[in-house]
Amino acid sequence: MAIKKEERRKKLKMRIRKRVNGTAERPRLTVFRSNKEIYAQLIDDTKGITLASASSMEKSFEKKGTKTDVAISVGKVIAERAKTVGVDSVVFDRNGYLYHGRVKSLAEAARENGLKF
Question: How open is the CA angle 44-36-18, to the nearest 5 degrees?
């Protein structure tokens, strides 16, 4: 029997999470994407807290263009919020998704706006 898409992603996610940990100096930038929306969080795994977050569901957020354009603007917002918290370097957690499309555009937009990973 074939492995379902979501089960495959969860296996990949666990394999990635074995190696990727966020600290206070270098938190984990994790990405979740659904069919309509995209979310990003900065997580300090030592304390188990979220330092900053951004998503395309926020009321102040304008959805213009394609889903990739929305992901780019979420990447810009998470980079700005990381600066306000005092974070300039992160560990990227693609959360089992391929580094392609919306995930890649969010990461590149965050890099262009000052985050290092």
Answer: 30
Q: Can you give the pTM of this predicted structure? A: 0.90
Task: Determine, yes or no, domain membership for 117.
Answer: no
Alpha-carbon radius of gyration of the chain: 14
Task: Report the residue count for the chain.
Answer: 117
pLDDT tens digit sequence for 23-53: 888 999 999 999 999 999 999 999 999 999 9
CA–CA separation, 57 and 36 (whole Å): 9
Dihedral, CA of residue 60, residue 48, residue 24 and residue 95, to nearest 10? -70
Return the CATH number at 26. 3.30.420.100
